[in-house]
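Long-time lurker, finally posting.

We've been working with Phage integrase family protein (Geodermatophilus saharensis) and I want a structural starting point before designing mutants. I don't trust myself to interpret raw outputs, so I'm hoping someone here can both generate the structure tokens and explain anything notable. Sequence follows.
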Amino acid sequence: MPRRVTQPSRSTPPRSAPLSLDVALTAVLASWHSEGLHSEQTVARVGETAARFTARLQASGVATFADVTPADAAGFIDARTRAGASPELATRHARRTAVRMLYRTLRALGQPVGDPTLDLRLPPRGLLAARPLTDDEVMLCRATAQLGWPTAARLRAVVWALGESGAVTSEITTLTVADLDDPAAPTTVRLPGTARHDPRSGDLSPWGARLLARHAADLTSRGATPATPLAYAGAAPRGGAKAQAAACNAIRTVLDRAGFGDDADVRPASLRNWAGRRLYDAGAPLEQVARALGHRSLDACAEDIALTWREDTR
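Top reply, 14 upvotes:
Generated this for you. Predicted structure of Phage integrase family protein:
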């Protein structure tokens, strides 16, 4: 049974009159560059897709993003390539993610828009139960996780940032201020390991490092000690089943609100698997990726990051 997509509960920014397509796109791109949600390469790639979507709308006579229909969005996502071929499934997913990111930012800027992709379902990318997210999808989820800061949504953003380090959800709830290498300017977090994962040091993403520095500073201003938990405020024992469920639910909520609630192959573990796949794609050998994720088996690591590693030549 498909999961129901939960809509975010947050204050709505003041709505303004719809901007023209070009003006609105310029504002969105400026926002993406200033927010630092991902690398310049990822922002440029998503921006290029958003620009192609805008050009298609202009050619169709659409005046503003508020006028876009679900059929307009579906037409772009399923549009043939320049060579006239049907788009690959990965391309369709990337296009949908870019349009969702575009509309999420438009709403944050106060534009009177919804989301024309809300009911647009795509087949799973593969056969994995929890495929790695893509960089574009992580960018969208970061924007989603930040919504509502500094309200109760803060812990969701903190859990997400720690998940990007390769931590499993049971580890996330045990982490304290002292586990950051430098709470004022963290770059790594000490991960304690579990019964199935080795202890290790997790690298924070630049986005995650900035968010955790801000969070640690706020905790300190409110009297936190080095033993203060970073991402768990419940009464159940940290690292236990109930605490782990809280961290898992936090990641699941971000995924749902980013629009992945009905994607059968996207689960909370997809975030950690992204961290491993990104490290591998950057040139790290599988053994290094396994150590970063705390894996004791290369086969298990390869499966998590969607790699047929025996066919790899590294």
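Before you design anything, note these points.
Residues 21-108 form one domain.
The first helix runs from residue 21 to 35.
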